[in-house]
Design brief:
The chain is mainly alpha-helical. It is built from eight helices and no strands. 47% of the residues lie in helices and 0% in strands. Helix 4 runs parallel beside helix 5.
Amino acid sequence: MANRGPSYGLSREVQEKIEQKYDPDLEQRLVDWIVGQCGGNLERPETGRENFQKWLMDGTILCRLINSLYPRGKEPIKKIAETQMAFKQMEKISQFLQAAEAYGVTTTDIFQTVDLWEGKDMAAVQRTLMSLGSVAVTKDDGHYRGDLDWFRRKAQGYRREFSQEQLRQGQSLIGLQMGSNRGASQAGMTGYGMHRQIM
């Protein structure tokens, strides 16, 4: 972690607001899912934001998680090196983020490497893992292992096909969003307000 002193003033207020977004109940659900998805040989962390961060910080668990969502032999991260070197651990985190985006997690749901590495925004890490779980449940390809109620299914597109005749008919109608001109007349209209008086 970076050697930074305590923050004061506005910086401290912003950091406190970010820390308030962290959900301890969600942490337990994510730990349950990760342990179930990666296999039972994972050691559970103690509860708490700092412990959750230390558990995921080296990137190994995240790489195992994303690999478990793919069929055997098609894993996006081929080699997961067990190392204590900081830059290698950060590289594993960024490999996970790239693989998560390729899996279907939207770019806006993906955290930055320093959010996890330095513990800056663990709520963003939770959002990324929730989004990854939602994509896995939505894909329903048999690789998701866990309770289906832990994550929401993402909405699927429903493409509609119209014939040329239907499209032509639609061009001749005035949509109700534009208002209606039926029964419009100026009958009974009178001038508004007082007339201008010139002295």
